[in-house]
Design a protein that fits this description.
heterodimer, A: 177 residues, Glutaredoxin, five-stranded mixed sheet, two-stranded antiparallel sheet, B: mainly alpha, Helicase, Ruva Protein, domain 3, 7 helices
Chain lengths: 177, 160
């Protein structure tokens, strides 16, 4: 190994690292890479057993027969306000959206839905947040696609946007219809 | 360099004080709510040891024992419930890994996805060792003995 190779090696390493970071940034911009993202363990698995009260509430056994979106939300959650309009749009498109109010009091949830619209075909309350932990939820809002056999097929962390709905949610709904 | 030390506004006593303060800080426990702790001190210390290995999913660089996030508090509660119910440390950790994946472990296991992570110290050692070896000072090889022609030429040069 000669001197020149030794001198150039650090530059080579720096260029390779730079290219790597550039690729990461690029993928992050496209939404394909989230350094803080927690991978969902639920994808490809049956939804864990639960039975939550609510209006009228629902159980894991209710999540079968057709693809359903399950949305974890809360009246105290700021991005959920923004997401409410998107969920209303999905409801108008005939897509069943079931809501699970995470760590929320019933009157607060009711007031939130009265103000921002109620997109939920069914509404359950997870007051102590235990069902959310069984699902691997790390915060609200989070949305899951459950197929007609009750298997979780996709998860979206954070508020759904129009872009996410057209680019990801609708294709997944078609795929599992 | 000596000069710099002497004229430094921080005399040795001050430096020692700073060092002492640096190491004197007690390990920070964000959580000091005694109502969370298990009544059995042995179980509580096991729960703390388990919680220290689990990542808070909200703040991510803190363990659930150190985090003030709501979800971390719920997870601490679950860890304590399971410890009190007689689960082994591994069973408690497995319970959380089943829901949040290996991401929840601050000490990830060695598997294909973490080979680079675990291998990086060895890799750094190999690369550094390789560079050190390649850059080692070398004594130049002794020159070959002079040939007969060179000998005579040298002799003639010296003689003139």
């Amino acid at each position: 190994m000669n001197r020149r190779v030794l001198l150039l090696a650090p530059f080579g390493v720096a260029i390779a690292a730079g290219a790597g970071f550039l690729a990461m940034l690029h993928r992050a911009e496209q939404g394909k890479f989230d350094p803080r993202g927690v991978p969902s363990m639920l994808i490809g698995k049956r939804v864990p057993a639960f039975n939550l009260p609510g209006d009228p509430g629902f159980a894991d056994t209710d999540l079968t027969g057709r693809p359903i979106l399950v949305n974890f939300f809360a009246s105290w959650c700021v991005p959920c306000v923004e997401e409410a309009a998107i969920l209303m749009g999905l409801k108008q498109g005939g897509i069943p959206v079931y809501g699970i109010a995470y760590k929320d009091k019933a009157p607060a949830t009711a007031a939130f839905l009265a103000k921002h619209g109620n997109p939920f075909a069914r509404l359950a309350r997870d007051e102590d947040g235990r069902v959310a932990i069984d699902w691997g939820v790390t915060g609200v809002p989070e949305t899951y696609l459950i197929d007609k056999d009750g298997i979780a097929r996709a998860r979206w962390v954070g508020a759904l946007t129009l872009d996410t709905v057209t680019a990801e949610v609708q294709p997944m709904l078609r795929k599992y219809a | 360099m000596r000069r710099l030390w002497r004229s430094s506004p921080l005399p040795w006593g001050g430096l020692l004080l700073v060092l002492a303060l640096l190491f004197a800080t007690a390990p920070a426990h964000a959580i000091s709510d005694p109502s969370e702790a298990l009544p059995n001190p042995a179980q509580e210390s096991r729960a703390v040891a388990i919680g220290k290995q689990l990542r808070c999913l909200v703040c991510q660089n803190e363990s659930i024992e150190d985090s003030g996030a709501d979800l971390a508090r719920d997870l601490r509660k679950i860890v304590r419930q399971r410890v009190a119910a007689g689960d082994s440390d591994q069973q408690v950790i497995d319970w959380l890994v089943a829901r949040y994946g290996n991401f929840v472990r601050l000490n990830p296991p060695l598997e294909w996805g973490t080979v680079l992570l675990w291998g990086s110290p060895l890799l750094a050692l190999l690369v550094g060792g390789g560079i050190a070896w390649a850059a080692r000072p070398r004594r130049p090889a002794p020159p070959a003995p002079l040939s007969a022609a060179e000998q005579t030429r040298l002799k003639s040069l010296l003689d003139t």
